[in-house]
Write a structure and sequence with these properties.
alpha+beta, Elongation Factor Tu (Ef-tu), domain 3, six-stranded antiparallel barrel
């Protein structure tokens, strides 16, 4: 009967394997359950930052370009320059008009004073006094208009130099000397490095657990060995599809329920110049559900 021992032992072994499998599965399920009560994660997340569209405030011809594509710039750096000559001529003309208007005002003030004195002494009729006062007011209004025009044209002259509004990285620069640029027409982008965040898209069924102020760990795919710390700043008012150009219309006969994802904005607390971030790159996020700053 010894030949049965291997079979019996084999059956016992299989039984132990099955038992071990169910025990391990139970522990795994329990571990996942405990983990899900404390942490929530997604790999559907993307790095973002403020992007400033650089546009001139005047129309003119570019005479100098001081930057190249993908260049890092500091706030206040000169980006490019528009030909100032037409605007300088306009400033000179406006200044001459202002000087003329001020001369007329001075003359009107002297005349007004004389006429008022003569009218008081009955050498001139009251109408002459009224006319001189009206003339002075008209001259004063002309000065104010000329002054406003002069200041506006001076501003246009100042706008011939375009400066970086913040620190950051330039993108899509194709500007060249000689180009004609139009007022308020964007030419290229400046990606600010003053603040970075990730837009993490969580399932709507997970949203109940997420609160503003919870801390998070962010792993950018570019730097898998350098996690960043973050904090939940805000939760979107709708699913991402709600803000698309053509949002889906669900009032159809073949509608299928699909779990939607809600963007959650998580600010990166410790950006590092040694690990520069790039917008629209992918990331993974783990939110600590039981922590708040």
């Amino acid at each position: 009967m010894n030949y049965l021992n291997p079979i019996i032992q084999s059956k016992n072994f299989k039984k132990y394997v099955v038992i071990a499998f169910f025990v391990a599965s139970g522990f795994a399920w329990l571990g996942i359950k405990i983990y899900s009560n404390y942490y929530l994660s997604t790999d559907n997340a993307y790095v973002n930052a403020n992007v400033v569209q650089i546009a001139p405030r005047i129309t003119g011809q570019v005479i100098n370009v001081f930057i190249t594509n993908n260049q890092y710039v500091h706030q206040g750096d000169t980006l490019f320059e528009i030909d100032p000559q037409p605007f300088q001529l306009a400033v000179n003309s406006a200044k001459a008009e202002l000087d003329l208007a001020q001369a007329e005002l001075e003359n009107a003030a002297i005349t007004e004073e004389r006429v008022i004195n003569l009218a008081k002494r009955k050498y001139l009729p009251p109408q002459e006094k009224d006319n001189s006062i009206a003339h002075f007011k008209i001259a004063l209004a002309k000065v104010e208009d000329a002054k406003a025009n002069f200041e506006q044209i001076k501003l246009s002259l100042a706008y011939t130099k375009i400066f970086a509004p913040t620190n950051g990285l330039l993108a899509n620069v194709s500007l060249r000397t000689g180009d004609i640029v139009l007022a308020n027409q964007p030419l290229f982008a400046l990606i600010s490095d003053q603040e970075f965040w990730v837009d993490a898209n969580f399932k709507e069924t997970e949203l109940e657990k997420i609160k503003v102020g919870q801390t998070a760990t962010i792993t950018v795919d570019m730097y898998p060995n350098h996690p960043f710390q973050g904090i939940v700043e805000s939760i979107s008012g709708g699913a991402g599809t709600a803000f698309s150009l053509l949002p889906p219309q669900n009032a159809t006969g073949n509608w299928v329920k699909v779990t939607q994802r809600i963007p959650v904005r998580i600010r990166i607390l410790n950006p590092n110049s040694h690990f520069p971030l790039r917008i629209a790159t992918t990331a993974s996020v783990i939110i600590n559900l039981h922590s708040k700053t």
